[in-house]
Write a structure and sequence with these properties.
about 400 residues, mainly alpha, disordered C terminus
Length: about 400
């Protein structure tokens, strides 16, 4: 789960760009949680902070570059076109012709395939392990779970495809769906956070906070949209247009977050669970059939000890909270005294966006290669018939024993 701040760029009467804060959306994404659980213990907490800073390049640098380029070049797009995410390709085509369009298509294809595959794997893991293995066939072998996981990947891919077609035929744009996630999913943020950071919240109040929070958010969202339709949308708007205004969806998102927070706090005080964390290391049933049932839940490395995990937790709170305060509070506050950006102010903004984008690109390309370099060399060595130094070291004692 994470917060995302988007920016809407408009031009003032003297044609200087003005940056206006847009709404905050919350997402609960099972793909990120699944990837986190699959990684070694020493990597995820630092990787997620770094990944968040890299991801921030997308709304920050792209909005500064292509968003304002489309505005400056007078690209003819309607509000529906912008809500459907057509600003980047339109600006790219105007700037670079067909090549710009191809660049944007390549970028979107890579992003969509990456996100779609991650979501399919995450949902299939949840359905295979948390539902099929837990409630339907507890004694399922590793091979059976793998087959069910593959089937669920295909099923969820079809679900996503059908949902996309239906929403497109209904005229629901990408912007509407994206902002609506705050109303639909925001109530799950606090229960998930409490389930990780405190032992007080029990299952009843966690479920109640998520469900009742979403119901409260829907009521507040539709109620505010209808009550303020003339001010926010204008006379004669349809219910769909009323509910799609940023202010109405902001009301729904904040209601979801705050109502679930209140319910969780009541649950922690009135009915504390006092959960025993040792259950996660002693009672988790690992998959059998390939020797995995004899492994330790946290593994054998030094970074899997409780002390190391507590140190990682402190690191997360220190830097995660610090970066969040800087990006969500301090940075916007620092821009308020500037008002409408003049030329020099916007040059500074564009320079920061440019440097951020280049640094993020270098990090996301170089770091994975550096981290996996030993594995890459080993794979290349196996392809060309050369063994790695580790394989030579492991085979030397055996050879010596055989000659002796």
């Amino acid at each position: 789960m994470w917060t995302e701040v988007k920016a809407e760029y408009k031009r003032s009467e003297n044609v200087r760009p003005c940056v206006k804060p847009r709404m905050v959306t919350w997402r609960i994404e099972d793909a990120r949680v699944t990837v986190h659980c699959a990684l070694p213990h020493q990597r995820p907490h630092k990787g997620y902070i770094l990944g968040g800073l890299v991801w921030f390049t997308i709304p920050f640098a792209l909005a500064t570059a292509l968003g304002l380029a489309g505005n400056a070049l007078n690209v003819k797009l309607t509000g529906d076109d912008a809500g459907s995410g057509l600003v980047p390709p339109a600006a790219g085509i105007v700037l670079l012709g067909k090549v710009g369009g191809y660049f944007v298509i390549t970028q979107l294809t890579m992003a969509i395939l990456s996100t779609g595959s991650a979501e399919c794997i995450a949902v299939s893991s949840l359905l295979s392990y948390d539902i099929y293995r837990t409630y339907i066939k507890p004694d399922a072998s590793g091979m059976t779970i793998m087959l069910m996981s593959r089937a669920f990947v295909c099923i969820w891919a079809l679900v996503m495809a059908i949902a996309s077609i239906v929403l497109n035929e209904m005229g629901v744009g990408l912007g509407y769906v994206y902002n609506f996630m705050a109303t639909a999913l925001g109530s799950a943020v606090v229960p998930i956070a409490c389930s990780i950071y405190t032992d007080k919240l029990d299952a009843t109040f966690a479920i109640a906070a998520a469900v009742l929070g979403m119901i409260s958010a829907l009521i507040a969202w539709l109620g505010s949209a209808d009550a303020n339709a003339d001010d926010w949308c204008g006379p004669g708007c349809s219910l769909f247009d009323k509910s799609g205004t940023l202010k109405a969806q902001l009301v729904g998102g904040i209601t979801a977050l705050l109502s679930s927070f209140i319910i969780c706090m009541v649950g922690c005080i009135v009915k504390p669970q006092n959960f025993d964390w040792s259950v996660l290391t002693t009672e988790i049933k690992l998959v059998g059939g390939d020797g995995g049932e004899n492994a330790k839940t946290l593994g054998d490395d030094a970074d899997a000890t409780p002390e190391a995990l507590l140190a990682a937790k402190e690191w997360i709170f220190k830097y995660g909270v610090g970066y969040s305060i800087f990006l969500v509070v301090l940075w916007p506050l620092a821009c308020i005294p500037m008002g409408v950006f003049g030329k020099s102010s916007f040059q500074l903004w564009a320079a920061v966006a440019l440097m951020w984008g280049w640094c993020a690109s270098i990090v996301i390309i170089v770091m994975p290669v550096y981290e996996s370099w030993d594995g890459i060399k080993g794979a290349i060595g196996n392809m060309i018939g050369k063994s790695s130094p580790a394989e030579k070291a492991s085979s030397t004692p055996a050879a010596e024993v055989g000659s002796a």
